């Protein structure tokens, strides 16, 4: 029998964060995509399936949301490591296989986990009609409030799950957003991307920081409360003219207070670490988890 439970990544002082329902299974246990998608809808969060691979002494991770399987999930990766550490007593660092590569997840201090990830380039989007469509998708349609001259738009290039990225001057734009899911899905499909990531730079002399919101494709009006996959790319973008080695990303909701992602770099080695506080909760059987789905 498989067991699992909720695990939260990128928490803020032991609260909030982005949940993942982690499932741990033995070798040969079938991964039922339909069941995982139904579970994702039922618990209203991403599902990470961790299957033990005895030949390589690793867990193979697969990620599911309500509408299907996705290639990678940053918060699901950290959530799985924290859950396996707590309930299966795996020592840190924990090697996890994602697609065809190994990701090493390390506990930096009690309750805090991180993994290494590449930062990808952000390519400028200059077409006014695309930027106008992005603003419409975010519900920023009042020309007196927000114009294409006040924002900068990009797309990530080279990532497994590429994003449309839009930078605003300050927090007021994030607070005013009301996602139009149909419009977002249309532009993401047209540009072969997986979501709209909006942010503003809120750095001060003491710390490099951004406030952010992310609206994944095919998620209706739901919001992703913490997005690890794009974090190094955006952190690298805003830190080019700064001396700080760590960027704080505060993400989720109109006030961007639901999660905290810590992105740090070794500039000599050009390595980025994506991390944060993680909290693993109960350990339950999948029979119990699925009992209320059908």
Automatic annotation (TrEMBL):
One of its GO terms (molecular function) is isomerase activity. It holds the Pfam family PhzC-PhzF. Transmembrane segments: none annotated. GO terms for cellular component: cytoplasm. It comes from the Bacteria. This is Putative phenazine biosynthesis protein, PhzF family. It comes from Advenella mimigardefordensis (strain DSM 17166 / LMG 22922 / DPN7).
């Amino acid at each position: 029998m498989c067991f699992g439970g909720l695990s939260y990544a990128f928490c803020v002082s032991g609260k909030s964060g982005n949940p993942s329902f982690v499932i741990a299974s033995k070798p040969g246990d079938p991964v039922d995509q339909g069941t995982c998608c139904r579970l994702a809808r039922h618990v209203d969060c991403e599902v990470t399936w961790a299957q033990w691979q005895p030949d390589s002494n690793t867990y193979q991770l697969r990620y599911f949301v309500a509408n299907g399987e996705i290639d990678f999930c940053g918060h699901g990766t950290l959530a799985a490591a924290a859950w396996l550490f707590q309930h299966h007593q795996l020592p840190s660092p924990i090697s996890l296989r994602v697609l065809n590569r190994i990701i090493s997840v390390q506990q930096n201090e009690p309750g805090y986990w991180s993994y290494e990830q590449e930062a990808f380039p952000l390519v400028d989007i200059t077409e006014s009609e695309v930027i106008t469509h992005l603003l419409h998708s975010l519900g920023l349609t009042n020309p007196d409030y927000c114009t294409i001259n006040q924002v900068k738009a990009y797309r990530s290039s080279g990532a497994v799950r590429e994003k449309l990225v839009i930078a605003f001057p300050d927090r007021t734009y994030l607070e005013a957003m009301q996602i139009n899911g149909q419009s977002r899905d249309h532009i993401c499909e047209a540009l072969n991307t997986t979501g709209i990531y909006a942010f503003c730079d809120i750095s001060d002399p003491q710390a490099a920081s951004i406030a952010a919101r992310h609206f994944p494709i095919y998620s209706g009006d739901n919001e992703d409360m913490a997005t690890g996959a794009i974090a190094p790319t955006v952190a690298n973008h805003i830190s080019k003219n700064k001396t700080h080695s760590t960027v704080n990303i505060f993400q989720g909701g109109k006030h961007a207070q639901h999660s905290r992602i810590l992105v740090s770099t070794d500039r000599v080695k050009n390595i980025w670490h994506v991390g944060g506080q993680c909290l693993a909760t109960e350990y339950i059987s999948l029979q119990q988890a699925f009992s209320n789905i059908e």
